[in-house]
Amino acid sequence: MKIINFSKRFLDDIAEIEKQSFVNPWTKEMLLDSAKNAAVKFKVLIENKTVAGYYIISTSADETEVLDIAVDPKFRKRSFGQAMLADIKKESNNKKSRVIFLEVRQNNNAAINLYKSFGFKEIGVRKKYYKNEDALVLKLINHKESAL
């Protein structure tokens, strides 16, 4: 397993994982627009020369937001989500970010359990964030920076 920067050659695979993972998936255009944004870090997890997952984060001032994260259903339950969260934390540290935020579908128990096992805490609810479903807002204090 390795986590590398996004390249357009991964776009079709990422778009397919998006479709398999989300009710309202990002389009290829949305993914490409994110990759062009200087405030965004877009990384891809590769396993045996195959796209197994990816994440997109944005850091502004001292806060990082997870905009998108997914693992291909064929690769789930193999610690790839944890590996990407660890990489997100590293990228966040590199940007001197104190906190990491994300939203997760309220009924996505597998993702919620993963995030909470990594140290994320629930801080709120966004009503109807996913059209007919609420989102939990989670926050992770970046301990390396919070000690300053």
Task: Summarize the structure in words.
It catalyses: N-terminal L-alanyl-[ribosomal protein bS18] + acetyl-CoA = N-terminal N(alpha)-acetyl-L-alanyl-[ribosomal protein bS18] + CoA + H(+). It is found in: Cytoplasm. InterPro entries: AcTrfase_RimI/Ard1 (IPR006464), Acyl_CoA_acyltransferase (IPR016181), GNAT_dom (IPR000182), YpeA/RimI_acetyltransf (IPR050680). It comes from Endomicrobium trichonymphae. This is [Ribosomal protein bS18]-alanine N-acetyltransferase. There is one protein chain. The chain is an alpha+beta fold and 148 residues long. It has one domain (2-141): Aminopeptidase (3-Layer(aba) Sandwich). It is built from five helices and seven strands; from the N terminus they run E-H-H-E-E-E-H-E-H-E-E-H. It has helices at residues 11-21, 28-36, 80-94, 109-117, 143-146; strands at 2-5, 40-47, 50-60, 63-71, 99-105, 121-130, 133-141. A seven-stranded mixed sheet has the order 1-2-3-4-5-7-6, sandwiched between helices. The longest helix has 15 residues, at 80-94. The radius of gyration is 15 Å and the shape is globular. The termini are far apart. The model has no long low-confidence stretch (mean pLDDT 92).
